[in-house]
Amino acid sequence: MQKGRIINLNGGVYKVLxxxxxxxxxxxxxxxxxxxxxxxxxKSKSKKEVLTTIKNTPKVGDIAVIENGMIDHYLERKNExxxxxxxxxxxxxxxxxxKEPDFSFFLLDLFLVNIxxxxxxxxxxxxxxDLLTDLELFELKENLSYYENMGYKVFYVDxxxxxxxxxxxxILKDKITVxxxxxxxxxxxxxxxxxxxxxxxxxxxxxxxxxxxHTTRETSLYPYLGGFIGDTPGFSKLDxxxxxxxxxxxxxxxxxGHNCKFRDCNHLEGIKGCAIYEAAQKGEILAxxxxxxxxxxxxxxxx
Length: 303
Ligand SMILES: Nc1nc2c(ncn2[C@@H]2O[C@H](COP(=O)(O)OP(=O)(O)OP(=O)(O)O)[C@@H](O)[C@H]2O)c(=O)[nH]1
Ligand SMILES: [Mg+2]
Ligand SMILES: [Zn+2]
Hints:
The chain is of the alpha/beta class and 303 residues long. The chain has eight helices and 15 strands.
């Protein structure tokens, strides 16, 4: 029996890092891959066997127990992320470009809400700060100080010229850290800057090959400083993932200090006497945060 960390999954083949530092490729035994279910046809009453992937399927981040050249089972998970599909994540580095693409406070709130919903600690990394003027950077920092006051760590980096990288490196030790964020935000470039001698393909337009942009396609964990860093494909579109309308206000941690006296209040814009609405009007809750809440709430209602 051997144990190891699953660091890559591609087409049913797992790469597992063993304790001795070697990496092996193998599959999971059949029982972990599929579950047999029977669908009953109402008309003919006939049963049809269907195979569905199940909860038990090992994923990247799991500690796999290997027997007879296959993954037999995995050890109990501390947590599991849905998107990207990774287990045992300690923190998410939420990479947001200061520019290209433009910084979006709504998207930031959307990512934060989804991460908190999965009970994982977010750390915000603002990338590409070299593309802002000093004044623009000053303004962005001012707005983001609101998020620092909520308790989130915020880092500012220029991965191209390796500015601010050491501070990011410091928080990676012994942890499983996954990078998340929009496509093109600079996740792969940041990993390349953080890990000396490392090379990941990034979204640089490949002129020599003329094949367009290299973006990350699969999820992998890279061993680093006793922990792991995960590069994942970025999102082009994100949604409120499986969040109930009544759960939403709890995920806006800055609303907590403002107790609304109404029962069953949804705290939407225009409700006279609602403590949340009034706090937003007075500027005690950041206007863009309150707008994000309204927008997400309405999106959940539409589902
Ligand atoms: N000026 C500047 N450009 C950057 C910086 N970081 C990344 N870039 C550029 O931004 C583009 C996208 O970077 P990637 O690292 O591929 O972005 P990604 O987040 O990995 O994108 P996906 O893999 O598609 O999710 C590339 O052209 C990078 O060279 C930075 O700090 N400053
Ligand atoms: Mg990438
Ligand atoms: Zn209210």
